Description:
Blueprint: H1 8-19, H2 23-27, E1 35-45, E2 48-49, E3 53-61, E4 64-72, E5 76-77, E6 84-87, E7 89-94, E8 100-105, E9 108-117, E10 120-130, E11 142-153, E12 158-166, E13 181-182
Parallel strand pairs: 6-13
Antiparallel strand pairs: 1-2, 1-3, 1-12, 3-4, 4-7, 5-6, 8-9, 9-10, 10-11, 11-12
Amino acid sequence: MKHEISDPTGIVLLMFLALLPAGPLAWAQQKIPDTRLRVTVQQREKGKLNPALHVQELLCFSGECSLTSITLNGCQPSPVSNGMASPVIIERSSTVGGNLKVTKEGDTLVAIETSVDIGGDSVTTQRFRYEKAREGGMVTKLTGYSGGFVKNSIIAKQVITVEFVPLQGAYKEILKLDCPLGLPGVDGSN
């Protein structure tokens, strides 16, 4: 038996039914709340904890998000002395820029950042669990965290996996860094 559908209503109904299996996945997408979550992490690679401190800040407003990372205590040779200094390194990604994707899974925001540099490509995934804000408020209380990255290193010719280990406690005072901070200024030597 051959069926013909020429009625526009029937065609629309068929298109709707064809898309129905994909529908629940799209409908399950949860709205990202306005958010300001911060955590400081250290990187653990091959069981060794790196002393550098990475302050992560996830900001989301009206469904768009940015992730900023500020690195301190990453001692390197100083350009102005024979000693070591820790430059302040600031990195940022965003959903608007296309290198960050943020999804909501219950009380957790999952931030996936992709990057490519001279050494290879990497994917960083961070899970920020939070306490729900009051109605109309902003999410600011972090209650759990896990994260890390995987890099396909062209230089090392291997895949590198690094875990992010969060500092414990709502607020931590670091009394002494391993080396002095190296901060940028205005070069008035001209």
